[in-house]
Amino acid sequence: MGHDELDLRVHDRDALDEIALYAEVLSAVAISERPLTLAELDNALGLSAPATC
């Protein structure tokens, strides 16, 4: 399928949201000098409660 045949009105909101979250994590990792803690990952993802693992 060529670019001319794409319907630009159709978006996959879930995929776009996932890409945005991934970008937030990559940005946080890029500025960190060490591996991120779970709390720092939660913060990068906009979560207020700490992850339980």
Short description:
The chain is 49% helix and 0% strand. The protein is mainly α.
SSE layout:
Blueprint: H1 13-31, H2 38-44
What does this structure look like?
The protein is mostly helical. It has two helices and no strands. It has helices at 13-31, 38-44.
List keywords for this structure.
53 residues
- Helix residue percentage: 40-55%
Order of helices and strands: HH
**How widely separated are the two ends?**
43 Å
Report the count of strand segments. 0
